Amino acid sequence: DLANVGVVGMAVMGSNLARNLAHKGHSVAVFNRTASRTDAMIAEHGTEGDFRPAHELADFVASLERPRRIIIMVKAGAPTDATIDALVPLLEEGDIVVDGGNAFFEDTRRREEKLRGLGLHFVGAGISGGEVGALEGPSIMPGGSRESYEALGPILESISAKVDGEPCCTYIGTDGAGHFVKMIHNGIEYADMQFIGEAFELLKGLGLSYPEMADVFATWNTGDLDSYLIEITSEVLRKVDAATGRPLVEVIVDAAGMKGTGTWTIQSALNLGTPVNAIAEAVFARAISSSPALRASAQKALTGPDGKVDVADRDAFIEQIREALWASKVVAYAQGLDEIRMAAEQYGWDINVGEVAKIWRAGCIIRARLLERIRSEYAAGNLVTLIEAPSIASGLADAQDGWREVVATAVRAGVPVPGFSAALAHYDQARAPRLNAALTQGLRDYFGAHTYRRIDREGAFHTNWSTDGAEIQES
Ligand code: NBP
């Protein structure tokens, strides 16, 4: 009687995933490098389902039915490689190794190629939803061979979150595609949180109390902005610190941490040439928050408005902040999905962007009402970019007056809104009939003879800037 599936790594994510699998009726082999962690998990949760704990990796592997399905949930990076290296000699042709950690997609491509050469399947599966998601139903983004998905997909789908009975798990594409999509999910998550932070600072600038701000977010959560992050923003703002009696957010140090997925999103976008300025500003906003030396010296040297927001109609401005938040969020999603489209071209992945939006509707951190609209827009037709979709473009048109007013007011008040303004700049750049790039190209030709193309003739041209000023056509 062999186990259906195995999980390596019994820290919080792995043990919750193993429990989720067991709750869904699968028999689950479990292993952790340090055996005491396996024992602790079994002591606490062993009665919840059919677990097969092992202290030796060889026993763990031998306890699995074939093809073996092994989900690795260990620390990303070297620990993942160490785990794969220990497993590989114990496996047989056709076995499936799944990395459920937050791996960089290039690492996944490398590992997949190596294991494919050994006759094994390697699946890089992005898993979002944190520890609660792992236990109760995450959003799962598996990449690897289609063949492996036939054996693995039903198990992953059984433990994923569901929307109207549909699993938040679908085959994404070959090799690193799943981890790439998970990386973009996290990049969008950074942007979402930055926009929420900007809205919060503007509401505070208006003079709202913390309970009032919590109410505003709770109200927003009943409309187009309905999402997990807006919902928990309301709860975090409402929380009072037991020690001081002050709002908890007021006593939290204003330095945001990061573990790398936002940075990867930007690095990959730079490599692909995808404009993702709104997501980039969210990553840089965390960077400046965590630059104490820079901030301390700048605070001493620099002056400016104090962040108080003075408007004639407070409620009308709050509605405009909501519009700025919604429109910026749409642009960040568009930028992330653009990056997926460009990566798919670059790496030969056949990614269905509408399906990606579909599996983000529940289980994951960026789950939001907007994703259903994104799914249906991509299902309705081939989009180059989300912001061209009819219902999205009209929503942006409706929101833009408020969005512009919020950015202008924030700039005058000295409230930094890099996310709102970057998203708005993207909107204006993308729709512009002409960009200032023509001048840039003229300058490049002047100092570097980089040539330019003309609007009226084919070919590359160069002006003899330093001699007779004549234009020559490059051969
Ligand atoms: P951690 O990221 O804290 O990793 C701890 C696990 O890695 C333990 O099982 C540990 O074994 C094992 N490990 C280490 Br460290 N070095 C190892 C090595 N050289 N060989 C074998 N095993 C090794 O666990 P986590 O927070 O559960 O996250 C697991 C994965 O899921 C990570 O990739 C993470 O990025 C990803 N993830 C986490 C979340 C979240 O909310 N936490 C959300 C989404 C994805 P030991 O007990 O013997 O030290």
UniProtKB/TrEMBL annotation:
Record keyword Oxidoreductase present: yes
Keyword Oxidoreductase in record: yes
A GO BP annotation: pentose-phosphate shunt
Gene3D superfamilies attached to this UniProt entry: 6-Phosphogluconate Dehydrogenase, domain 3, N-(1-d-carboxylethyl)-l-norvaline Dehydrogenase, domain 2, NAD(P)-binding Rossmann-like Domain
Pathway note: Carbohydrate degradation; pentose phosphate pathway; D-ribulose 5-phosphate from D-glucose 6-phosphate (oxidative stage): step 3/3
Domain of life, per lineage: Bacteria
InterPro entries: 6-PGluconate_DH-like_C_sf, 6PGD_dom2, 6PGDH_C, 6PGDH_Gnd/GntZ, 6PGDH_NADP-bd, NAD(P)-bd_dom_sf, Pgluconate_DH
Keywords, in A-Z order: Gluconate utilization, NADP, Oxidoreductase, Pentose shunt
Catalytic activity annotation: 6-phospho-D-gluconate + NADP(+) = D-ribulose 5-phosphate + CO2 + NADPH
Binding site residues for substrate: 102, 128-130, 185-186, 190, 259, 286, 444, 450
Coiled-coil stretches: none
Pfam family, one: 6PGD
EC number: 1.1.1.44
SUPFAM superfamilies: 6-phosphogluconate dehydrogenase C-terminal domain-like, NAD(P)-binding Rossmann-fold domains
NCBIfam families found in the cross-reference section: gnd, PRK09287.1
Binding partners and assembly: Homodimer.
Function as written in the Swiss-Prot or TrEMBL entry: Catalyzes the oxidative decarboxylation of 6-phosphogluconate to ribulose 5-phosphate and CO(2), with concomitant reduction of NADP to NADPH.
Similarity-based family: Belongs to the 6-phosphogluconate dehydrogenase family.
PANTHER family on file: 6-PHOSPHOGLUCONATE DEHYDROGENASE
Protein name per Swiss-Prot or TrEMBL: 6-phosphogluconate dehydrogenase, decarboxylating
Organism: Tessaracoccus bendigoensis DSM 12906
